[in-house]
Amino acid sequence: MGVMIEGKWHRDDDVARVDKDGAWQRSASTVRNWLTKDGSPGPTGVGGFPAEAGRYHLYAAWNCPWAHRGLLIRVLKGLEDLITVSYAAPRRSDQGWVFDADAGYADDLYGSASLHELFSKGVEAYTGRVTVPVLWDKQTGRMVSNESADIVRMLNSAFDRLAPAGPDFYPEDLRMLIDLWNDRIYSTLNNGVYRAGFAGSQESYEEAAALVFETLDAIEIQLGKTPYLTGDRLSEADIRLFPTLARFDVAYFGAFKCNLRRLIDYSDLWAYARRFYAMPGVAGTVNFDIYRRGYNSPSPQRNPHGIVPLGPEIDWSITD
Known about the structure:
The protein is an alpha/beta fold. The protein has helices spanning 65-76, 115-122, 148-157, 175-190, 192-197, 202-223, 236-255, 267-277, 288-295; strands spanning 3-5, 8-10, 35-36, 49-50, 56-61, 83-88, 92-93, 96-97, 134-137, 142-145.
């Protein structure tokens, strides 16, 4: 996929992805400034980005579950008129994430051909992977963050004085429980499906896949007790879970060999996923056909012939 080293793009990925035992490793995000109501330092200790209407831009890609988090918090907090958005094309090349204006995937700010051009503009001598989502400051031409978890957290509260009052998805009384779910879901499910799909050994695959379904089973039990992960209120933990659920049956089940059970085989989890999908604005952040095609795109490791399956056909509308 390529990597940037001191602000220059290199086509060969020098970032280690599989360890000596065949376990796939995700590289960490490295740009973690913070956007706050008044520009004061956030949890990372870095400030300087005050919440202002129309100042910030989100770069996303339809098929990326990490970018999906940013799209979800944007609609759930009612920030569509305050934060603009551009989409990279739902594919990657030897240039990484690219734009294709003719197909409707344009960089609306700079007309860039690839995302790595933006990283060159927004971060001095950037070294690391070039990822979405990206939260961008249009006023200074700098990148605020490329860490999806931080973007969800900061957009939850930074614009509360500018946007209509919306729910707090990280309330004080639920933070400990939210953090516990976040840690488990990220490690064994959000990232776990990738550890299964990109495993370099049978043992690593089986370990990762088993943890995926242990976590889904635990979530099913919880949702048999409460409507959401942390009780009767939608929280940040639910927002971070949903992108994986939206891709599970149509992509991870087949392309990543997470095929012990389907999402629709879980009665409470499947009902929960459809309720989430039915929330105002959420369906507009989902594109099942792009997931199906993207996760089954040509890959020397997973899909050398690039054959895209016809299905599955799954109805996410609430019918009962």
